[in-house]
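Tutorial handout. Part one gives the primary structure; part two gives the three-dimensional structure as tokens.
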Amino acid sequence: MALPPYIQPDLQTWLQKFRFSTRIEPRFSETDAFGHINNVSYFIYFEQGRLDYFGELKLLDHWSGMERAKSYPVVADLACDYLQELFFNQAILLQVRTASIGRTSIELEYALIREADKVLIAAGRGRLVNIDTITKKPTPFSSEFIQLIQSYEPEFSSAMIE
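Part two.
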């Protein structure tokens, strides 16, 4: 199967860009009738990885207490490219990284790797938009947010998404 276009310039170079990883053990309930991990489960893994990644960067603290937060990110789009089969009882490593950030949105990439043989099972990408809690419209990220990302992701591209 061909690699998705965002894996650049090649698979190994792309994988080396990831600094954050979290381990996930698929549950039996996440399998389909054929014994595969159901395609919907990958999006749940991406969500868990995103939360773990933001926790590592101390960004969850930034948004804690929604009554105090002036803005928060919401998923605007999310895609998954399925490359290999995955079955119950196959632990995975989910890698997450910031690919780019704009004034009001952030692009994340995901690499789902089978732990036993280090094979890339799936790759994903998604965009989150920072939303004002009152107007519900896109609003710029705080300088603190951007600094936290930049300090964690030294190779991070500051190219504007918007």
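Part three, for discussion. Residues 157-162 have pLDDT under 50 and may be disordered. Residues 70 and 133 are 6 Å apart (CA to CA).
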